[in-house]
Amino acid sequence: MDQLYKVLEAWMEACLEGHGIYAAQQALYVLQTMEANFDQKTSSFYTPSTSFYDIVFHAFASCQGRREAAETVQSVLQRMLNRAKKSRRYYPQPTTKTFNIALNCWAKSNEYDAGLRAEELWQVMNDWHHNCKHETNGKRPVECAPNERTMAALVEAWGNSGHEDTPQRVLLLLQQAIDQQKFQTQLVNAIVFTNAIRAVTRRKHPLGAEKAEEILRLMQQSHVQPNTRTYAAVLHAYMTTAESNQLLISKTHAAERATAILQQMIQKYREGAADVKPNVYCFTTCIAAWARCQNDDDTELKPQEIAEGLWDELLQLYLESSDPAFRPSVEAGNAVLMAWMRATHVAEAMDRGNDVLVRMRQYAKPDLRSYNILLNGMNWRGMGGESLKLIEWMEQQRPELRPDRFSFNSVLAALAKDRTLPNAQEQAEVILRRMEFSSVGADQFSYATVLDAWSRSEDTTDKARRAEALVQVMMDRYVSGESQIKPDNFIFSNWIKACIPCKRNRHQNDDASRISAFRAMEIVKSGQYCKPNYVTYTNLFRVILYTHSKEQEQECRQLLNQTLVECADGGHVSIGIRDLLQSSNVSLPSAIPASWSRSVPLRDRPLS
């Protein structure tokens, strides 16, 4: 028997080494041979013990076999139970460990119904335990009662499933377990509660953060002491909510709840509860939640000030204790910096951001992300000249601070928005060429941003030709195999937009720009790269209107009508197109037919 057990161990080790479900199936084959021997009653010597089943189940739990592994284990467990029922005196019975390994198989399967299947198995376990207590025949009953590991596997199965009912089911299971443990062994501990919090928040469920806090309260009511990891999991849930666009909980509310929980931790820690020490990760999580509140319409607070206030509180704890757990990290400083950069409505935000960088250097070295956050702040404010100076400085620094593609793209975006820098679009194209001939490389966003710069330009008559040349480069690169450079609707829309003359040159005959715009639209209509939408047509109508002189009014109207027929056939007539054509005295139905706008997003469709 020892030799057979060693064979099973070897197959289990093979699963751990990555040999997959094949190794687990070989272990099962050995077990099935022993089961067949018992059924034939040729020799009781080769009857498998419970430990044999446990090691085979462990092999399946380790093989990454997902549903196949979990269903195989559940099937073998049912065979084991059936044999034990028929021959309880002679055949081994599953223990708590046996059931827990089977539950763990479902937890690791990541299947959508894993939580439901694990609950079914849990019920089988409870029934078997109940029957064992009443059918011992004077023998000591086999210990198969659920325990904390059972509950941990059960909530993990729900958490990994991605099922929309996960938060409600996990909370209900915890409440049932708390009620049951009044009459039997301990079923919940800090690990179970922490796993439950992670389970309800893992797939960014819109109610996950609130359910996580509810679990935290349930934990406290059950006299199970939360620790730092438990609180950190709830804080992370609220930060994730602040990151998302879910409307069930506002970003401000999420940040406020995270801060309230952090303040609880600080208070408990100051009262002597060392297990809930609010480390730098907890502070960073809260600060990051506030950094994401800048676009939240329902807040009258100043998120950037609150974020920096939390950073100050962390610093105060560090100065009081010299505890490395409180030393402000570069991640914490970056979160504060992000809060200030996102405060685009605050005049002194850039200065305050620079102050944050200065303070960071006292405790942690700013990294590339620090300067990328600053560059992105310049992008949002259209500070092209300042972004050029910063990236030139970065290029002279140590290798880990050298600009990456994100750095250069932020500069390109800042240049595209800058209305004060002469020839910003020319400088953007110079940066693009530098990117192309360096290890950084240019991507689709890089080209799109330079095209945007040309389309916004008001001081050149050459922008249509320059935009077309850029798109031609993209098409050539895509055809040669660079799929990441594929032009899309945004690219072609910006090409067409670049064909709209500068304000001082509008309503003058500009055949070259008009021809370029129609060339772009023909490529779009071919479907090789993308298909037309209401944005491409909106820009094309503007090109037609602004590239004809007053003497060409009849030709202009004829071209508008021809283009309108195409646009309506494709269902691309939007509110903007309707208003543009009506202001140009183009004859339109009093109510735009619904079919004319069928391809337009609902918010941009005219009322039919």
Automatic annotation (TrEMBL):
PANTHER family linked to this entry: PENTATRICOPEPTIDE REPEAT-CONTAINING PROTEIN, TETRATRICOPEPTIDE REPEAT (TPR)-LIKE SUPERFAMILY PROTEIN-RELATED
UniProt name for this protein: Pentacotripeptide-repeat region of PRORP domain-containing protein
This protein's record includes keyword Repeat: yes
Keywords: Repeat
InterPro entries in the cross-refs: PPR/CCM1_RNA-binding (IPR051222), PPR_rpt (IPR002885), TPR-like_helical_dom_sf (IPR011990)
